[in-house]
Design brief:
Length: 290
Amino acid sequence: MKKILITGSSGFIGRNLKEQLADKYLIIAPSHTELDLLDEDVVHTFLVDQNFDVVIHTASENATRNAKRDIHEVLPNNLRMFFNLARSHELYGKMYYFGSGAEYDRRYYLSKMPEGYFDNHVPIDPYGFSKYVMAKYSLGAPNIYDLRLFGVFGKYEDWELRFISHACCRVVWEMPITIRQNVNFDYLYIHDLVQIMTWFIENEPKRKAYNICSGQVYDLRTLAGKVLKAADKQLAIEVARPGLGPEYSGDNQVWLEEIGGYTFTAMDTAINELYQWYRGQKNNIDPARL
């Protein structure tokens, strides 16, 4: 049984990976108090002692409203966590970390950006730049791989900020769905991401960076309609600003061809599953925060 380290296991993606991979692998998912990723000596000693087959680095900082992070700490902390793991790459089999479409620079997003679009621009925001620096380093590292995510949704994400979960929670409380501005977005269901990760755990990738996305674009208003359909409710969809914002999507053909194809969970099915989950969590959702 492969031994896997998952960092950031209290976060959205890390928690789902820890929960869904536990029956297949020996999962080690230390808390921040158990493993301070900002301490290079602690990280090195931990890796020496554990002998992991795979490291999945999901821990990341971003200065969102609820994260309560100083925006000036995003860049140094993301890089320090990454390099404290990367500098000891000989102590584990391989490391996957989750990059971001932000590596392509949010000022210059294109529709369905391919991997080859990387490095056409250098991101100016701290989060995007931190992911850009990691990506540049991993290109020359023997066993470190960049899995670039775009929109990922599912249970345990921040329902106050993330659109699909926020919409589900508002509908649970019989509130209209609100959209700041409609935009086309590529969303990947968390359960699909977990399944995709099992392929990467079991196989040796041919490339150093992949767009991990569904390849299917939906506008937010359409997704809002799917939430209402799942709930079988008729509530308003309120859009604050007219027009369409910049599309956020990636081309996923490189990894689809390498793994031999993948059948994604239908968006209607995914949203229905997520809505039913939030309906069961209603008592834990404060409507005043919606």
